[in-house]
Write a structure and sequence with these properties.
With about 230 residues, the protein is of the alpha+beta class. It is about 20% helix and about 25% strand. It contains six helices and 13 strands. Bound molecules: uracil.
Length: about 230
């Protein structure tokens, strides 16, 4: 496998960055500086970037998890909270979450060991659309809906146009579906806060053409070939 592909699959850097690091003499193969980006990594080669060994990624694994409330989407938590890693019980490969869902947000979370794909999906220039189902309290007026759809200031950042549909009105809350194109921290919650509403429950139901459907909370499945192909082509 070509050196830059090896490094990016392991999630250490993008292919372009890997080439830059190689040319800058920051990459070693079996202890010796390798400044040739076209080097073909052989089985058994020990690859180091900036002094850190980059483990080979053998099989690419792509998982779709329905994250429950009360889990963090990091590989470890310094406050001792449960992490989504604890829910993945029969996958020996070291996979990690693509992007983040809040501790109390549920729903679709992709996990993989394909660092290159994960980096690409999270890069602002490829941000894939994400749809959330939200239970919202407060006065969701026509004016609020207009603002949410056209862009609101969530603290130094004005959101780009979003799709917002009221699915059902209840006496004290609304069921709303919202589709956004960016992935700012707590974006959906902040958007509703910006128009004086409160998100009580939040669940991600799709990412681009990938849907959570009826997968139970805490359960996961492998992505299909078609879904993987779709993500690679974004
Ligand atoms: N927006 C939020 O506010 N929280 C999430 O977890 C995801 C999107």
């Amino acid at each position: 496998m070509r050196l830059n592909k090896y490094i990016s699959h392991a999630g250490a850097a993008s292919r372009r960055k890997a080439d830059e690091l190689t040319l800058a003499g920051k990459v070693r193969i079996n202890g010796k500086v390798m400044s040739e980006p076209g080097y073909d990594v052989a089985e058994g080669d020990v690859v180091e970037v900036d002094g850190k060994i980059i483990e080979p990624v053998s099989e690419m694994i792509y998982i779709l998890l329905n994250k429950p409330r009360g889990y963090v989407t990091t590989t470890s938590d310094d406050r001792g909270r449960r992490t989504v890693m604890e829910l993945i019980t029969d996958i020996p490969e070291r996979i990690y979450p693509v992007g983040r869902l809040d501790y109390n947000t549920t729903g679709l979370l992709i996990m993989t060991n394909d660092g290159e794909l994960a980096n690409r999906l999270m890069h602002p220039s490829h941000e894939v659309t994400k749809t959330y189902s939200a239970m919202v309290t407060g006065n969701l007026s026509k004016d609020s809906l207009w603002k949410l759809r056209n862009g609101v200031d969530i603290g130094g950042f004005v959101t780009s146009p979003a799709e917002v549909n009221i699915i059902k009105e209840h006496p004290h809350h609304h069921e709303v579906e919202i589709t956004i194109h960016e992935g700012k921290n707590r974006q959906v919650r902040k958007m509703f806060e910006a128009v004086g509403c409160n998100v009580r429950e939040l669940k991600r139901i799709s990412m681009g053409n990938i849907y959570l459907s009826r997968l139970a909370e805490g359960h996961y499945r492998k992505l299909t070939k078609k879904e993987i192909e779709y993500l690679r082509n974004i």
